[in-house]
Amino acid sequence: MDCLTPDDGIFRDEDALRDHFPSRILERDEKLAEYQRTFQEVVRNKRPRNVFLYGPTGVGKTIGTKAVFRNLERSIEQFDYGASRFSEPSLRTVHLECKDLNTSYQVAAHLLNLLRAETDRERVSTTGYPEGEIYRLLFDELRATAASHVLVALDEIDTVGSDDNILYKLPRCNNDDSARYVDPETTKVGVVGITNDGTFRDTLDPRAKSTLCDQEIHFPPYDATELGTILRDRADVAFHDGVLSADVIPLTAALAAQRSGYARTALDLLYEAADQARTADDGTVTEAHVEAAEESIQQGAIVEEVHGLSVHGKLVAYAVFRLCEREATPAKIDTVYAWYKQAAEQVDVSPVTSRTVHNTLNDLMVAGIVDSQEVNRGRGGGRHYEYELSCRPATLLDGLTGDPRVRAVDTRL
């Protein structure tokens, strides 16, 4: 076995292809401008609106939120309020990752501790308090803050599921009919709810929906041209000059746009292609490396993801597969659920609810197994999502082969 050396003829700095590498936010100018305009009230020292920000993973929602917050702070610092009719606001921003928090209580407790992080006030335990006490402490903290405005971003807020009290109480805390009233003359509070699940707002309690969704902003997937811009920007840092053939970035961008439209997908694919060239001791990354990398990533990742699914997840994926086989996709959730339920009952598995199947479909989307499209039939027809496979059917079947319960549904496995 040869020793590893730091010498590398392909990569100059492969960290540039990592998800959180410091980089400019590209191909999002219009969305960021729209997003920033929703906070015009802050620089005017008025109450901010609450925002519901949605779109698939890897399209700039989190990094865009942080950039908008930074620019708001900079706008306040640079504007000459002494020469205007507006009094100068002060702004505090808080960004809370809710991925591992599945109740409103946990969100409120962690948010309280984030607000206390810049003070000498004692942190609270995230368990053990009555829920009403946690809310009392949280709103006391908001009243006590020195800033005139507090903007709170709750990232991946859909993890709270149906326990959405925090999404009712916090966005309306400045309303004088609120049980935990925070006087806006003391602290003006705005909430940004960020989610990968565009349908999450439709599952909210109507009271929570009406307060959180003052403004809705959708970050769509990137197209191939936009992904190409992002890849070229990162490639200038990641690779030695001249190691990418001319067709590598256009092909990588096109494949990533077709698969998901996520920047993360494109960066991973470009890294894998370059790593294959490095492993083979090739001096140039070519179209053949990209195609081989795409095949490897698609097959390996999806098979691995399917192996790790619960039996319900596998049966939901199988239901979409059967609909695809019958050329009945894209299909609405009700249709997918009917096929899933039939398969579950066939192998004596108690079916889960339609809401759980909906959540499972979202997980399958993140895994690259299923894709969705929003269908908007206007004011009279309503809006819904339809689902279809985003991977090769044969690859999905490879992943399902190891589960005897799914094999009992389909003799081909």
Architecture blueprint of SSEs:
Elements: H1 29-37, H2 40-43, E1 51-54, H3 61-78, E2 91-97, H4 104-116, H5 131-144, E3 149-155, H6 165-169, E4 188-195, H7 200-203, H8 206-212, E5 215-218, H9 224-238, H10 248-259, H11 263-279, H12 287-307, H13 311-325, E6 331-332, H14 333-346, H15 354-366, E7 370-376, H16 378-381, E8 383-389, H17 393-400, H18 404-407
Parallel strand pairs: 1-4, 1-5, 2-3, 3-4
Antiparallel strand pairs: 6-8, 7-8
Helix pairs in contact: 4-5, 9-10, 9-11, 10-11, 10-12, 11-12, 12-17, 13-14, 13-15, 13-17
Question: Quick gist of this model?
Answer:
This protein folds into three domains: 29-218, Rossmann fold (3-Layer(aba) Sandwich), CATH 3.40.50; 223-305, Helicase, Ruva Protein, domain 3; 309-407, Orthogonal Bundle (Arc Repressor Mutant, subunit A). Helices cover 48% and strands 11% of the residues. It contains 18 helices and eight strands.
Written account of the structure:
With 413 residues, this protein is an alpha/beta fold. The relative contact order is 0.11. It has helices at 29-37, 40-43, 61-78, 104-116, 131-144, 165-169, 200-203, 206-212, 224-238, 248-259, 263-279, 287-307, 311-325, 333-346, 354-366, 378-381, 393-400, 404-407, and strands spanning 51-54, 91-97, 149-155, 188-195, 215-218, 331-332, 370-376, 383-389. Helices cover 48% and strands 11% of the residues. It folds into three domains: 29-218, 3-Layer(aba) Sandwich (Rossmann fold); 223-305, Helicase, Ruva Protein, domain 3 (Orthogonal Bundle), CATH 1.10.8.60; 309-407, Winged helix-like DNA-binding domain superfamily/Winged helix DNA-binding domain (Arc Repressor Mutant, subunit A, Orthogonal Bundle). The strands form two sheets. The protein has a five-stranded parallel beta sheet with strand order 2-3-4-1-5, sandwiched between helices. Strands 6-8-7 form a three-stranded antiparallel beta sheet. Helix 6 links the parallel strand 3 (149-155) and strand 4. Helix 10 (248-259) runs parallel beside helix 12. The protein starts with 28 loop residues before the first helix and ends in a 6-residue tail after the last helix. The mean pLDDT is 90.
